[in-house]
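Teaching note: in complex prediction, the entire set of molecules is handled at once rather than each chain in isolation. The prompt given to students was simply: 'Predict the structure of this complex.' The entities are:
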Amino acid sequence: MFAASETLAPLSGGWFLDNAWLAPVVPTIGFALIVLFGKRLPKKGSELGVLSLLASLVVASGAAWQWIQRVNSAAEEQFVAPVVRTWSWWQAGGVEFTIGQHVDGLGVVVLFVVAFISTLVQVYSLEYLRGDRRYTHFFASLTLFSAGMLAMVIAEDMIPFLLGWEIMGLCSFILIGHWWEDGANSRAALKAFFTVRTGDIGLLVGIAILFFAANDWTTENLGLSGFSIRGISAWALSGDPNSTVILMAAIALFIASIGKSGQFPLHTWLPDAMAGPTPVSSLLHSSTMVVAGVFLVARLYPVFFAGLDILGPSSNVIMAIAAITIVIAAALAFVQTDIKRVLAYSTVSQLGYMMLGLGAGAWLPAVFHIFTHAFFKACLFLCAGSVGHSASHHSFDMKRDMGGLRKHMPITFAAWVVSTLALCGVFPFSGFFSKDEIIDNVGGNGYTFFMIVGLGGAFLTAAYMTRATYLMFFGEPRGAAAGEHGHDTHGHAHDAHANHPDHSGPHESGVLITAPIAVLAVLAIFAGLFNATPFGESWEYLKKWVEPRAAVVVEAHAGGPGESLIIAVPNAEEGHSKSPCGKETPQDGICYAPQLNHAKFKWSKAFLSLAIVFAGIAVSWLLSAAFYGRRDPRLVGLTQRNGLARAGYRLLANKYYLDDFYERGIVSSVSGPVARGAYWFNQNVLDGILHGVARGAKAIAHVVYRDIDQRLVDGTVNASADATKTAGATVQPIQSGRVGHYGALLFATAAVAALVFVILNT
Amino acid sequence: MIAAELLVAQNVGFAIIALLMIVAALRVVTTNNVVHAALWLVTVLAGAAAQYVLLAAEFVAVTQVLVYIGAVMVLFLFGTMLTRARIGAEHDLNNPYWRLGIPVAGLLFAAMAIALVSSFGDEQLPSDARVVPVAEISDQIFGPYLLPFWALSFVLLAAIIGAIVLARKD
Amino acid sequence: MLTSQFLLLGAILFCIGVYGVIARKNAVLVLMSIELILNSVNINLLAFALRNGSADGHTFALYIIAVAAAEVGVGLAMVLLIYRNRRSIGLDELSEMRG
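The expected output is the structure of the full assembly:
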C-alpha cells in the first residue's frame, strides 16, 4: 500500500503527561481558596499562591521529563503524537464541546516557562509587596493569571484556549490597576484591556472562520470538531481549505496576536502597563502573557503556513509588521527615562523578533527565543524592581533617582549585566543562541531585507540597553540613590514604606528578592545550551524534543492519533524524510505540521552579528558617558539647538503621536457621537415609549373607573339590590301579621289543592 | 218491611236534623250578634249529637252533649261575656274581604262533593249495625290507642296550666 | 242510609266553617267556626266507624272532642289577654307581626 513503510515503536507515556491538566487546575483551586480564606491565613494567602504554583511547576517539570522520554522512545522520523485527553461538557446541534489537554513539545516548553517564572515571581512578591493594602487580592489575581495561561497552553480546543486567553486579559487588567487609587494606573489598566480587546475581535472571528471552514473536513476524517487544534492543523495542511478563507482566518488570528503581543499598531498599551507592580510587569508583560500571541501563531502554525504562504516566494504581513515593530520600539526605548518603560519597549521589540521568526518560517528559533527571552527579560524586570525597592525609593526614573548603584547592589548588578548581555545576544549567553538563530534563518529562507532589519534591531537593542545600564549603575548617584528623601516620583502610593526600615542609602535587597533574580540570571546564562546549534546537531535538544515532525500520519482509528502509526514516506532517504507536508497535499494520510528549513550555522555569520552588537555597546557607552557623565558641550542641549534633533526627539517622546491618534482620533470621534446618539435614543425613544405607555395606562384606568367600575359594576350591584328590594316589597303584604289573612290564605290554598287532587284522581 | 219503615224513618230524621244543622251553621257565620251566634252553635252541636245517635254512637253522642255543649259552649259564653261583647247587634263582625270566603267555600265544597259522590255513590251503610258498647271503646282507648290517650292527657294538662297562666291577672 | 249523605253533611259543615274562619273578624266567632269544622270531622269519623264496624272511629271522635275542649280553653284565654291589652278582639287589629 505504501512505497516504504515502517512500523513504529509505541510511544511512552506517563502519569505527568496524562495528568498535565492538573497544571492549570491546581492554581485555579488555589485562587478560589485564596479568595475565600486568604485574609485569615498567617501569610495572608500568599502561601497558597506559592504552593499551588509550585505544584504546577512539579507537574510541568514531570510532564517535560516524560515528554522527553516519549520523544526518545519514538523512531527516527516518527511523528510524536501529543498526549491528548478530552472530556465532553456540552453537546448542541451536532457539535460536541470538549475540554481537555493537548500536551506536545511546544506545550511542555511554555508550560514549564510559565510555571517556573510564576513561582519565582510569587516568591519575589512576598518581599516586594509586603504590607501592601491588597496583598491577598494581588496573590489571588496572580495565581488566577497563571491558571489562565496554563489552561491556554494545554488547551486542546479553541474554546478553552479562548477561555484562558480572556482570563489572562482580565487578570492583566486587575493587576495593572492594582493601585487604582491613582487615576493614571486605572487609565493604564483600561487602555491595556481595551487595546487587547480590539485585537480579540480577530480571535473570535478567526475561531469562527476556522470552525465553519474546517468542521466538515475534521468530522469526516478525524472525528473531531472544527474547534479542535490538531483538527484545524491537519485541515490546514490537507489541501482542503479555500485559500481566501484560510488567509482570512490567518489574518484574523494574527490581529489577535498583534493586540496581545504588542505588535505595531496595537503596541501602545504595553509601556503604559508598567503602571502595575514590578512583579506583574515581569511575569505578565515580559515573559508570559505577551508571549501568548506568539504562542497562538506557533500553535496554529499550519493555518498561518498555508494561509499566508510562509516559505513562499514573497514576504507576508507577519514579517512586515514584526519588522516595523522591532525598529519603532527600539527607537522609542532611547528616549525613556523610566527604566520599566525601556524594558517594556525592549519586550515589544523582542516580540517582534519572535513574530519575524514565525513569519519567515523559523518556527523553532522563535519558540526557543520565547524560552530564553522569558528568563532574561523577567530577570531584568525583577532587577529593576529590586533597584526600585531598595535603592531609589520606588522611583523608576533613571535620570533622577538612580546612578552609581553597582557598588551598593552587587547581586542585582551582576544579574542585570548578565541578562543584558543575553538580551543583546552576546556569545555564550542564551540570547545569542536564540536571537541569532532567528536572524540567521530569516536570511537563510531568502528574506535578506528582513535579516538586515533584524541585525539593525540588534544594534539598537545593544545601544539602548547600554544607555540604561550606564544611567542606573554607573556615574554619580542622583536623587534617591544619593539618599535624598523626596516624594514618590511615581504614583506608586503604597504603604510598603511603613514596613521598610529606612536605611541611609541604597542597599542590596533581601534574599526573597535576590534569590529569584539569581536563579533567573543563571538560566539566562545557560538556557541557550538547550538548543546550541553552533555546537552541532547533538546539542539541538529543543529541535529534537519540541519541533513537531513533518511526517504524514495514518490514523489508526478516527478520534485521535493512535499509538502505532505508519508513515508513508515516498522515496525516503536516510536521515531525511521527504515528506510532502506543507509542500503538497498529503495522499493517504494526514499532516499535522509543515516541513520547515533550518539554516546551517556558520561562524562567519555569528561573528558578523557579534561585531554589530559590540559596536552598538561601544557607541552607546561612549555617547552615554559623554552625555550623562562628562557632559560634553557638543551634545548637551542638542535637541534645543538643532531643529531636526528637536523634531526627532519630539516624535519619539510623543510615541509617534499614535496614542493621540488612537485616543482623540478614533476613540473620541466614535464615542462622542455614539454617546450622544444613545442619549437621544434614551430620552426620546425609550422615555417616549415609557411616557406613552404611562399615558395610555392612565387613560385606560380612567375609562375603567368611569364606565366599567362606576357604571357597569356598581350599576349591576345596585340593580340587583333594587330588584331584591322590589321583590321583597311585592311579597311583603302577604306577611300582614293578621291572623285572618293567614287563615284566609291557608284555606284558599287548601281549596285549590283539593280541587287539583280531585281532578287528578278522577 | 219494618226495616224499610225504620229506614225511612231514619232517613227522614236525618234529613230534618241535617237541614236544621245546616241552617244553624249558616246563622253562626252570618249573624251580627255574638250571643246569637253562640246559641246557633249550640243548635249545631245538638244536631250533631242527634246524628251521632243515628250513627249508633251513643256514648259519643252523650259525651258530645256533656262536654261540647255543657263545657265548651259555656266557655264560649264566658269568653264572650268577659270580652264585653255588645248585647245586641254589632255591625263590624266581618272582615272587609268576607266575600272571598264564598268562592273558597264553594270551591272546596264542590271538590269534596265530587270526590265523595264519585267514590261512595250509592253505597249503603249496613242496616244491621250493632251498637258499639262502651266497653269496646274503653278497650280501644286503653289498648291500641293508649299512647294518644296519654298524649291527650298531657295536652289537657298543658291546656289547663296554659290557660291559667295566660289568663291570670297578676 | 247512604254513606254519602253523612259525608256530604260533614262536607257542608266543613265548608261553612271555612267560610266563617275567612269572613269573621271577631276572634270568638272565628273559634266558633273552628268548632264547626271539628264537628264535621267527627261526623265523618263516626260514619266510617259505622261503615267499617269498628270502634276506632268512636275513640278518635272522643279524642277530638277532648282536644277541642283544650283548644277552646287556651284560645279563649288568649282572647281574654288580647282584650285586656287592646280593649278589642278584632283580628284585623292584631298586626304587630307584620313583616
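Point out the following to students. Chain A has 28 helices and five strands. The longest strand of chain A covers residues 83-92.
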